[in-house]
Amino acid sequence: MLLAAAAEMQALDRAAMEEFGIPGVVLMENAGRGVAGLVLEAFPSEAAGGVLVLSGPGNNGGDGFVIARHLHQAGVPVRVAALAPAEKFRNEAGVNLEIVRRSGIPLEFCPTEADVPGLAGRCRSAGLLVDAVFGTGLAREVTGRFAEIIRTMNDAGRPVVSVDVPSGLSADTGRPLGIAVAARMTATMALPKLGLVVWPGRELAGELRVVDIGLPPAALRRHPPAQELLDEAAARELVRPRPPDGHKGTFGHLLVLAGAPGKTGAAALAAIGALRSGPGLVTVGTPAGCQPVLAAKLTEAMTAGLAETADGTLAAAAWNGIRALLEGKRALAVGPGLGLDEEVQELVRRLAAEAPCPAVLDADALTALGTEAPRI
């Protein structure tokens, strides 16, 4: 599953409009209609008790106006609280504000701090809240009136459906920017955002649903996000059919460099996990003193002892042994339980620069790379 950072999602929206000619008002219409459909599907009884849409001064607020219109057309009692003066809603948001006005949907403007207490009462009396206050573009801490509005939604005791991201949540880091909405469901546009799948954003988002807003597949091919979540569907695509006459030599040989005194468990777990991922053969390279321990722990993996320091961790002199072990290997995993001795870090950096096969660096190996960038 592709994951979009805020800037990547903005680039995709621009591409849809500028490169493919899709008007922004069409994207907003698709977004709002999709969220309204999710509300009707997932919260029919709550919606029947009345929906309050809180719309902030931006495209997220414009989505809120579209949501309100589609709920109204479906017979749901809905009212809109616009959290800025009318003139602040421009372009597509302004168009949809005017449609709400002409459609007879109850609409009130709440542009000042004095409006918050009244808004709190309406939140408590609603069956469901739609959070369309801030979208993915929020980059600064939420303070003042908007912080109070978010606190009001959280304290109302009503389920909240957030539009795109819970208001106040960083779309990139998953951390609240001061304060964030705790949603029952987040309906995000086109692609999940990074901040919705990492903690604490994952918890604050509630159930995550993706709304198709009509982005052309070609736009994704031209401007692909750099991140991907390895979910079940993606993992299935990585598992290739195995020939009936295959054997352990058919499926590749993995070298795992891991372990140190007191940390052989990390090396054993890495080897067991590696075996479950599908290679035909796994060898664990580890300090010589740890090799007997790992040989006893591991039934399916092979083990090899390497030169070690006086403290029992891998020594720089292990390089030649590692290079010999790498012959014929299809992949390399480095890091679990290796420790952070200076000679270990030197080995890790050298492997990052010179490994002859695809490599996964984890745990202590990542720390070693963070200490000094490899010279590649």
From TrEMBL:
One of its GO terms (biological process) is metabolite repair. Its cofactor is K(+). Residues 9-221 form the YjeF N-terminal domain. It comes from the Bacteria. Pfam families: Carb_kinase, YjeF_N. In the N-terminal section; belongs to the NnrE/AIBP family. In the C-terminal section; belongs to the NnrD/CARKD family. Bifunctional enzyme that catalyzes the epimerization of the S- and R-forms of NAD(P)HX and the dehydration of the S-form of NAD(P)HX at the expense of ADP, which is converted to AMP. This allows the repair of both epimers of NAD(P)HX, a damaged form of NAD(P)H that is a result of enzymatic or heat-dependent hydration. This is Bifunctional NAD(P)H-hydrate repair enzyme Nnr. It comes from Dissulfurirhabdus thermomarina.
